[in-house]
Design brief:
Blueprint: H1 2-38, H2 43-59, H3 67-80, H4 102-109, H5 127-144, H6 149-170, H7 175-182, H8 185-193, H9 198-210, H10 214-227, H11 243-265, H12 274-281, H13 288-296, H14 303-324, H15 331-345, H16 355-358, H17 366-375, H18 379-394, H19 399-410, H20 412-421, H21 423-443
Helix pairs in contact: 1-18, 2-7, 2-8, 3-5, 5-6, 6-9, 9-10, 10-11, 14-15, 17-21, 18-19
Length: about 450
């Protein structure tokens, strides 16, 4: 009970800190907007602030707090040694000892299995992302003479950051806005302190949306898919003359990805496919998906859950098609709204998935960008609830655990997730409705 109470208090303090950080960022954004109107804004000063914050965040990668990033390093070492991470789950890497160098074995043995995410399963990551991890691991070995986890994770974070900045610049985002958004606490936490590799996919998404030719749009859409599976959905939102051409491009990117990924995924020994396990069993912090499953009487792993997920994916596709027809929205605005629905209907809307949406906002118009930026104030509460949910599931004793289980039995906990997750979307809808009403009022005699 004491440990659970301490965890809850520290989690509450962390939540409060992140809420204050979000407010501080919004204050900084407001101040910059006011200064930019008078022409007195120092982009160099903002860039120095962003650089200092990122150096501070990257320094914490010496002791990473995420098990995901340990898998990045583990699999990067395997790929650099020409060992398939699809056939070799971390728990079985010793079976490939004869194919690994002494440096690789030392690096892999230095990471306890308990610090790896699902070590008994093969990798869930696409081949292009695995090739990127392998290239970074190989570069670290060439520069330092051996594998180093800190240097590898810093390399992943910096590579993703550079790709995102290039994508922003290709989309005509001013340097002042780039420096400002690099200071956002969500980017600093998820891409810097935690080194999630979603930044690589986001950079490819930005390049796809900012591309000027159909060939470049398709290429970068496929690259986004190859870096993380949802990235291919960006093909819906790139500029295209007709809905039919958007659909053909989206299906083409998906089929090409399936054709290339299938041979890799089929290599996994029976029962160790990371993709299969993650998509069939994994669920956390889910609102809409959990509500639908409860209403239909389904349990994780039920055969009917496949059709539920297929139906939710159909809703996402239908909404994306609807967005594609909206002539009053640009490509970045359609993508920001479409990916918000994608994330929020998924079984696992982890906090770092919201960086996909946030990274699109600098290129959006203010009427879409501002309400969505305000919605990110609710994200620390979502992170807090996510952590408390896990703590309560690990600790069966104490008043906090009993209280949490009571809320879960009553259905309050998924309702809470439903409310916070859809806050941005409904805020935008209310904002747009208010604009329409104001135009109606102004047009009346």
């Amino acid at each position: 009970m004491m440990a659970l109470g301490h965890s809850s208090l520290s989690n509450a303090a962390s939540t409060l800190g992140w809420i204050l950080a979000h407010f501080a960022w919004l204050g900084l954004a407001r101040w910059i907007l006011a200064r930019s109107q008078t022409g007195r804004i120092s982009t160099a000063g903002l860039a120095c602030l962003a650089l200092a914050l990122w150096i501070t965040g990257l320094a914490q990668l010496k002791n990473p707090e995420e098990t995901d990033v340990n898998r990045y390093f583990f699999e990067g070492v395997l790929v650099s040694e020409a060992v398939s991470p699809y056939r070799t789950p971390p728990a079985r890497f010793e079976t490939q000892a004869s194919h690994l160098s002494a440096q690789a074995l030392t690096a892999l043995r230095s990471i306890p299995q308990a610090e790896l995410n699902f070590p008994e399963l093969g990798t869930p990551y696409p081949p292009i992302q695995e090739a990127t991890f392998g290239a970074i691991a190989r570069s670290v070995r060439a520069i330092l003479g051996g594998y180093d986890r800190f240097a590898f994770l810093a390399g992943v974070a910096i590579a993703g950051l550079c790709l995102v900045v290039v994508g922003w610049r290709k989309s005509q985002v001013p340097w002042a806005w780039i420096a400002l958004f690099l200071c956002h606490p969500l980017f600093l936490r998820e891409w810097g302190v935690r080194a999630h590799a979603d930044s690589l996919m986001v950079g490819a998404m930005l390049l796809a949306l900012g591309a000027k030719t159909a060939r470049a749009q398709t290429l970068f859409s496929f690259l986004a898919l190859g870096l993380k599976y949802p990235g291919g959905w960006i093909a819906w939102f790139v500029e295209s003359p007709t809905l039919r051409s958007r659909f053909i491009r989206t299906m083409g990117v998906g089929l090409l990805g399936a054709a290339i990924f299938t041979p890799f995924l089929l290599q996994a020994p029976p029962g160790t496919s990371g993709v299969a396990a993650f998509t069939s069993l994994w669920e956390s912090n889910s609102g809409v998906h959990r509500w639908a499953r409860m209403l239909l009487g389904l349990y994780p792993g039920d055969s009917g859950e496949f059709f539920l997920r297929l139906g939710l994916l159909g809703l996402v596709g239908g909404f994306s098609a609807h967005l594609a027809t909206q002539k009053n929205l640009g490509a970045f605005e359609k993508a920001a709204l479409g990916f918000q629905v994608w994330v929020l209907l998924s079984p696992t809307p982890n906090p770092w998935y919201f960086t996909w949406i946030l990274a699109l906002l600098p290129a959006c118009r203010a009427e879409v960008r501002n309400p969505l930026l305000l919605s990110f104030l609710a994200l620390p509460l979502a992170q807090s609830w996510w952590a408390i949910d896990w703590v309560s599931s690990w600790n069966s004793g104490g008043w906090m655990g009993a209280w949490m289980r009571t809320l879960q039995d009553l259905g309050v906990e998924p309702l809470w997730n439903f409310e916070h997750a859809w806050l941005g979307f409904w805020t935008w809808k209310a904002y747009r409705s208010g604009l329409r009403l104001s135009h109606v009022e102004q047009s009346r005699p």
